[in-house]
Fold:
Amino acid sequence: MPRAPYLLIGFDVDPANPNGPSIVADVERDFPYGPVTSVGVENMYILEVPPSLMIDRFRRVTTYLTGKDAVHQNAVRWVVQLCRSSEVSVG
Structure:
């Protein structure tokens, strides 16, 4: 279980996109703050963040994903949620 605060991050590419696997690999390879922890659901990750840096990390991750989306002609679908409590359930 992650300690709060943390970012819940998800990204993927439409399965019909023939470049999908290479795009996802590109996003994962350059992801800020090193490898993120998978939550056991494909393309969903948790990144624990220090409380004093939570807004900065949120902005950096969303800026990064927006940039990757632009580079890949809006092919990257993504979501980032800043979670301020430790309550998360994955199944």
